[in-house]
């Protein structure tokens, strides 16, 4: 069982930056693929970025070059650095931990990009 707690969301102006954090409980953090998803109002949840255990990173095309995912296995934490934010990045952001076919989710943190 893994519990995930996100933090770092908030209101930011277009072009600004935010860093999301996701702290995981348990001692097996390093064996999980970690990812960030987001869900905008009226839309389905979509993958934003993932960090596999072998170091492979993947990003949605819409955030490539602007967002960076990283993980600190010593701190059981995964981060999402978001730069050059756009209004269309407005969504609830969710942390995900996956092992085989089992998914764990955080409660989400809201990101609003608006002037």
What does this structure look like?
0% of the residues lie in helices and 52% in strands. It is mostly beta strands. The strands form two sheets. Strands 2, 4, 5, 6, 9, 10 and 11 form a seven-stranded mixed sheet that branches. A hairpin with a 2-residue loop joins strand 9 (91-99) and strand 10 (102-105). It is globular and about 40 Å long.
Structural class: mainly beta
Which band does the percent of strand residues land in? Answer: over 45%
- Rg for CA atoms: 13 Å
Name the helix and strand elements from N-terminus to C-terminus, one letter apiece. Answer: EEEEEEEEEEE
Low-pLDDT stretches: none
Largest sheet: 7 strands, mixed
Give the overall form.
globular
Number of helical stretches of at least 4 residues: 0
What value does the average pLDDT take? 95
Distance between the termini: 40 Å
What level of helicity do the residues show?
under 10%
Number of strands: 11
């Amino acid at each position: 069982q893994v519990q995930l707690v996100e933090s770092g969301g908030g209101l930011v102006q277009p072009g600004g930056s935010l860093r999301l954090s996701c702290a995981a409980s348990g001692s097996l953090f390093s064996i999980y693929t970690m990812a960030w998803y987001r869900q905008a109002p009226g839309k389905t949840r979509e993958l934003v970025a993932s960090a596999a255990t072998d170091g492979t990173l993947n990003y949605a095309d819409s955030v490539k070059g602007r967002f960076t995912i990283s993980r600190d296995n010593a701190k059981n934490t995964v981060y999402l650095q978001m730069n050059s934010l756009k209004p269309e990045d407005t969504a609830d952001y969710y942390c995900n931990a996956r092992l085989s076919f089992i998914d764990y989710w955080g409660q989400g943190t809201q990101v609003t990009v608006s002037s």
